[in-house]
Amino acid sequence: MEHRGQLELLLLASLAGGPAHGYALIEWLRERSAGAFDYPEGTIYPALHKLESDGLVSSRWDDTGPRRRRVYRLTRRGRAVLARRRSSWQEFVQAVEAVVAP
Amino acid sequence: VIERYLAELERALPRFLWRGARILEEVEDHLRASAARVGEEEAVRRFGRPHELARAFRRSQAALIAAAAVLAVLALPVLGYPLLENTLPPAPWPEERQPHHLHWKQDRAAQLFLAAAVAGIAGTALVTRRRTAALVLLAFAVLALVGMGAIGTVLSAQWAEAVPGTPWWHTALGAVFLACAASAAALLARAALLPSRA
C-alpha cells in the first residue's frame, strides 16, 4: 500500500494513545492496519527524529526495562498538528469518497 | 547477524551525524526486540537496508548541515579581520576623510553582516525544533551574506586601486567570500527542497 507521505500522520496518531518506543509503534501500526502497513521497519526512525526536530514529539530514555529504550511522546504542539492533519485527512477522504463511490 | 547489520549501518551513516550514537542504540534495541520474536535474519530483513536508512537520516540532517555552513561563513569575517588589519598597508587618507565610495560600502557590508549574524544564529538555534522557521531565518542570513559578498567583491577591488601596496590576494577576498556564501545558499536550498516527509 502506498502510504509513505502519510507516515508522519500515522506516527502522530499512534502516539496519541500514549508514549511508545519505535518497536511498539511499528507493531501497533501493523496490527491496527491488519498488516497493510508492512514496510521496512527502519523507516520510522528518520521520521520520528524529524518529528522530534520539528518539536512535534519529544523523547527520553526509559531505563526501567531489561533494555534501555527511547520512548517517544506527543508534545502539545504535536497534538495541535495532529488535530489539524486529522481534520484535513477526513476532508480528503470524504472528498475522494464522494467522487469514487459508485 | 545484528552486529554485522549495525556495523554496516554505522559505516553508512554520515560521519558527523547528529544523534549518531543514539540512532545506533535505538536500532539495536529494535532489532533485538524483533529478533526475540522472528529471529535475527528476519528482524534484519524487516528493518530494511542500512544504506537506505542512512540516506533517510542524511536527508533529515540537511538543515543542520546548512545551518553549520551559514555559521562557518559568518565566522570568516570574524577570523579574517585581524589578518586584514595586520597585512593591509595604511590608507593614504585620514580616517574621517575616507572616500565616500569606499565608506558607504564598508558600512553596508557591516550592516549586512550584523543582520546575517542575528538571523543565522537564531536560525541555527531553531533548526532542531522549528525547521521551517529556521530555514526562513537561515535564508535571510544567506541573502545578507551574499549581498555582503557582492559588496565586498567590489570594495576589495576598489580598495586595491585606492591604496598603493595592497597585496594582490586582497582583491580576491570578496569573491572568495561570495563563493562561500553561495555554497551555503546551495546547501540551504538542498535542505529546503529535499522531501521533508518520509
Summarize the structure.
The complex is a heterodimer of chains A (102) and B (198). Chain A has 102 residues and is α+β, with helices and mostly antiparallel strands. Chain A has helices spanning 7-15, 22-32, 44-53, 76-100; strands at 20-21, 57-62, 69-74.
Count of alpha/pi helices of chain B: 7
Oligomer: heterodimer
Tell me, rounded to a whole number, the average pLDDT of chain A.
Answer: 87
> What's the total helix number of chain A?
4
Question: What is the succession of H and E elements of chain A?
Answer: HEHHEEH
User: Roughly how many Å apart are the termini of chain B?
Assistant: 27 Å
The percent range for helix content of chain B is: over 70%
Rg over alpha carbons of chain B: 24 Å
Largest sheet of chain B: none
Q: Structural class, from secondary structure content of chain A?
A: alpha+beta
Number of separate strands of chain A: 3
Please explain how this structure is put together.
In chain A, a hairpin with a 6-residue loop joins strand 2 and strand 3. A three-stranded antiparallel beta sheet of chain A has the order 1-3-2. In chain A, 54% of the residues lie in helices and 14% in strands. By secondary structure, chain A is an alpha+beta fold. Chain B is elongated. Chain B contains seven helices and no strands. Helices cover 80% and strands 0% of the residues of chain B. Chain B starts with a helix and ends in a 5-residue tail after the last helix. In chain B, helix 1 runs antiparallel to helix 2 and helix 2 packs across helix 3. Chain B is mainly α and 198 residues long. The longest helix of chain B is centred in the middle third of the chain and has 38 residues. The model of chain B has no long low-confidence stretch (mean pLDDT 86). At the A-B interface, helix 2 and helix 3 of A face helix 2 and helix 4 of B.
